[in-house]
Specification:
The protein has 109 residues and is mostly helical. 56% of the residues lie in helices and 0% in strands.
């Protein structure tokens, strides 16, 4: 027997039972759900950082979408905030590495 305290995808209990095993689950409160989603974000990010795989990046996106919905936002709102930031501050296409910031000297114009 293995014990967990882990947020899992909706079909995991069904998959466990199809595999001939039994599992105990509970439905979380909204507060606990958001807390465990936040933990899951860290878990999925760590898994992506280790593997650099598209599958792990997809898992991270799935959890991000769940967080958006759980916090009462919409994916449309998320995309609008992203687009607004990109319009104001740019994206990451130019591969810019900021190395230093210093005050302008009077001779700098």
């Amino acid at each position: 027997m293995q014990t967990y305290h882990k947020l899992v995808r909706d079909r995991i209990p069904e998959i466990i039972e199809i595999d001939g095993k039994k599992c105990d689950c509970e439905t979380l409160s909204d507060e606990d759900y958001i807390s465990l989603l936040d933990q899951k974000l860290n878990e999925e990010l760590a898994e992506y950082q280790e593997s650099k795989s598209l599958e792990e990046l997809a898992d991270l996106l799935e959890v991000m979408q769940a967080v958006v919905k759980a916090r009462g936002w919409t994916l449309k709102e998320l995309e609008q905030v992203r687009a607004d930031k990109a319009a104001k501050r740019g994206g990451f296409e130019r591969k810019i590495l900021l190395k230093e910031v210093r005050e302008k000297e009077p001779s700098d114009g």
